[in-house]
Design a protein that fits this description.
By secondary structure, the protein is mainly α. It has 13 helices and no strands.
Amino acid sequence: MLSIFSHKLYFFSHDCLVAKEHKQRLGIYGRTPCAIAFGKFLLLDDRTCLSVFLRQRAECHSQKWRPYMRTTATVSFIAVCWASLVVSEEAHTPYSGLENRAIAALSESDIDALEAGQGWGFALPAELNGYPGPLHTLELAEALALSPEQEERLTEIFEQMPTDAKAAGAAFISAEAALDRAFSQGGITQETLSDAVFTAGNARSALRLVHLSRHLMTVEILNEAQIQRYNVLRGYADDPCAATPDGHDPAMWRRHNGCEG
């Protein structure tokens, strides 16, 4: 890929010089010739670029373009070396700076979210598959026509959840910190590594269970029409009340799907 890239750079620098040579004849002045050449450089596909490159390199060896060959080669060489340096540096240092983390596997924002009892994306398998969560259900209480009893039960679940999530999050952070120390302090063995990894994995699973289980509790409180409405309001499903499918009685369809009117 880098070889083709160098061909494109060579073609661009050559075109730029050629355009400048003929700018008076073409009526093009200033930096416009190079801009045109650069546009061609960006639009060329790899196969076309290689073909043009080979043809133009042969032309450059003729006496007509010999004065420009050294400049063209120099521009291409510098550009390709720079591109190679950037690619090489990015490929070999993807984790540079992360060595300063308090816990290698967790960023500061990760730790803040876990300590605050936030979801951390753990509940997505439930949320995106028709299992509403207590928070968003309460936020949509009016649109879902929740009864006072439903609101009360959902509020209990929601208010208890942060306490459980913070406790499980703290345990997970502690387990990851222990795994990190096992490596940073040295002396880790296969046995101690296995214990540390499984401890951290179990802590993560327990935290995920806290979030997913609340969605399961929420579904037990709602009826089917409310769940369907929740998915529509959250953008996960089409509104069945928007149109009646062919072959269905409109009144029965709307009544079955809990549509108003």
